């Protein structure tokens, strides 16, 4: 969830197919106009610009972000997914687009909100509450959250889905894919159809609040004995396919931990990394959206609040087994075994290894050196990231070797990468090696 600043204006979310298509048309036209204008300016200065340079100008970055955030739904969600997956590897202009998507706070105006709730709860829905705050306390890609109070004084968080989001998922994903193709960011030889199909499937699942309610309750049960975590309580009598009702849990943005004592930051990330390992090797169930806004911190209790279980998904046994083989080889410091395990799990394509064996091995060596260092891993030390980026960028220039890992692996890696980014943000120090070894000892694969 993205915390609403409280001073943003409501803006009706386009709900009809034609209305949403019109926004994409406006976006494409605006970007094209920006390309022409910037191209003319650079030609007048004697430059010979590339089309990629013209597409990713700051003005076009702002234009794309504003229009996609106005659409919300699949268009915005895909942008958020790409931003978390790519981590430190994005060009700055594209990172600007995605940062604006994460932070934009457009929300439904009161009249549109009332229509949605009347359709779900009936016209007299206000009688269910002693108070219902019209202005959302948070806004995200698929829905926005309101604070409410029941007649008995119970404080609730009510997540309300934007109208038209569920119906527009398939078309929005296809339109975003078209924009990526037109931009030249993806090679024509790369078959992204399986990824697009899976993106549509996950977004349909995330738009089903009854499914999310089940996942919320399941995580509440799984973590019932873990006092360091707080999971909101489900209120099923007020939950519908487009409205999710849960207890209101207080907390501040997890990023505020940046100023917390080192031992607190270390403990929080120790707990989160342990949770990821349990999800992967023990539960075979993972909440795959590591957006920072899905974590809140309670300074008074020193507990971490876990939010938003729409992206929770079961994992096949072979996904966990692939990670087990890869991590076992890494802990042993065996470069060849790491490479073979990475190929077998689908992390690496065979074509990339055949064409760029030396670069691949150098990247593996960098990771093995970091993992072999004694004591806690310092996530605040990012020196090795630059080396990996340099090697990875050189491989990525060879578009004929681009490769998509298995879908489940992509979602798991998204969670792992996002968790590592949060650890880096907090400059945490965690003995990752010991956590992995401990996890292997207790896993029930």
Q: Briefly, what is this?
A:
The chain has 445 residues and is an alpha+beta fold.
Which key features would you list for this structure?
445 residues, alpha+beta, 56% helix, disordered N terminus
Would you kindly provide a written description of the structure presented here, covering whatever features stand out?
This protein has 445 residues and is of the alpha+beta class. It contains 17 helices and 14 strands. The strands form 4 sheets. Strands 1, 2, 3, 4, 5 and 7 form a 6-stranded antiparallel beta sheet that branches. The chain has a 4-stranded mixed beta sheet with strand order 6-11-10-8, with no helix packed on it. The protein has a two-stranded antiparallel ribbon with strand order 9-12. A hairpin with a 3-residue loop joins β3 and β4. The two termini are 32 Å apart.
Q: What's the SSE blueprint?
A:
Blueprint: E1 2-3, H1 17-44, H2 51-55, H3 58-71, H4 73-86, H5 92-103, H6 110-121, E2 131-132, E3 138-139, E4 143-149, E5 155-161, H7 165-183, H8 193-206, H9 209-222, E6 229-230, E7 243-247, E8 252-253, H10 262-283, E9 285-287, E10 295-298, E11 303-306, E12 312-314, H11 317-331, H12 335-345, H13 350-355, H14 357-372, E13 377-378, H15 383-396, H16 407-426, E14 429-430, H17 432-442
Parallel strand pairs: 6-11
Antiparallel strand pairs: 1-3, 2-4, 3-4, 4-5, 5-7, 8-10, 9-12, 10-11, 13-14
Helix pairs in contact: 1-3, 1-7, 3-4, 3-5, 4-5, 4-7, 4-16, 7-8, 10-16, 10-17, 11-12, 12-14, 14-15
């Amino acid at each position: 969830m993205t915390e609403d600043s409280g001073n943003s204006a409501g803006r009706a979310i386009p709900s009809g197919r034609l209305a949403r298509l019109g926004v994409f048309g406006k976006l494409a036209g605006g970007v094209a106009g920006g390309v022409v204008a910037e191209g003319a300016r650079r030609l007048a200065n004697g430059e010979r610009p590339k089309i990629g340079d013209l597409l990713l100008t700051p003005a076009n970055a702002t234009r794309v972000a504003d229009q996609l955030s106005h659409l919300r739904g699949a268009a915005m969600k895909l942008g958020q997914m790409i931003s978390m997956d790519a981590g430190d590897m994005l060009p700055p202009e594209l990172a600007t687009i995605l940062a604006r998507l994460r932070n934009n706070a457009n929300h439904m105006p009161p009249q549109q909100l009332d229509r949605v709730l009347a359709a779900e709860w009936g016209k007299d829905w206000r009688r269910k509450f002693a108070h219902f705050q019209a202005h959302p306390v948070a806004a995200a890609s698929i829905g926005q959250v309101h604070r409410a109070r029941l007649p008995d004084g119970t404080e609730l968080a009510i997540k309300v889905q934007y109208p038209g989001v569920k119906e527009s998922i398939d078309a929005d994903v296809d339109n975003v894919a078209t924009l990526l193709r037109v931009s030249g960011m993806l090679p024509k030889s790369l078959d992204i159809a399986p990824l697009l199909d899976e993106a549509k499937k996950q977004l349909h699942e995330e738009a089903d609040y009854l499914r999310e309610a089940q996942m919320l309750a399941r995580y509440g049960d799984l973590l019932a004995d873990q006092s360091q975590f707080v999971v909101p309580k489900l209120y099923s009598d007020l939950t519908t396919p487009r409205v999710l009702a849960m207890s209101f849990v207080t907390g501040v943005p997890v990023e505020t931990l940046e100023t917390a004592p080192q031992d607190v930051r270390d403990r929080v990330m120790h707990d989160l990394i342990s949770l990821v390992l349990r999800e992967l090797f023990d539960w075979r169930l993972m909440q795959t959206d590591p957006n920072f806004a899905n974590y809140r911190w309670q300074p008074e209790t020193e507990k971490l609040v876990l939010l938003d279980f729409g992206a929770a998904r079961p994992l096949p046994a072979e996904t966990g087994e692939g990670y087990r083989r890869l991590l076992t080889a890494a802990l042993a410091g065996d470069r060849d075994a790491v490479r073979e395990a990475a190929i077998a799990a689908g992390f690496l394509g065979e074509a990339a290894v055949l064409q760029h064996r030396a670069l691949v091995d150098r990247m593996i060596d960098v990771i093995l050196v970091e993992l072999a260092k004694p004591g806690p891993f310092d996530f605040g030390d990012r020196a090795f990231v630059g080396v990996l980026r340099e090697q990875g960028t050189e491989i990525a220039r060879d578009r004929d070797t681009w490769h998509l890992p298995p879908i489940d692996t992509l979602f798991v890696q998204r969670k792992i990468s996002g968790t590592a980014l949060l650890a880096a943000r907090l400059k945490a120090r965690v003995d990752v090696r010991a956590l992995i070894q401990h996890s292997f000892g207790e896993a029930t694969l």
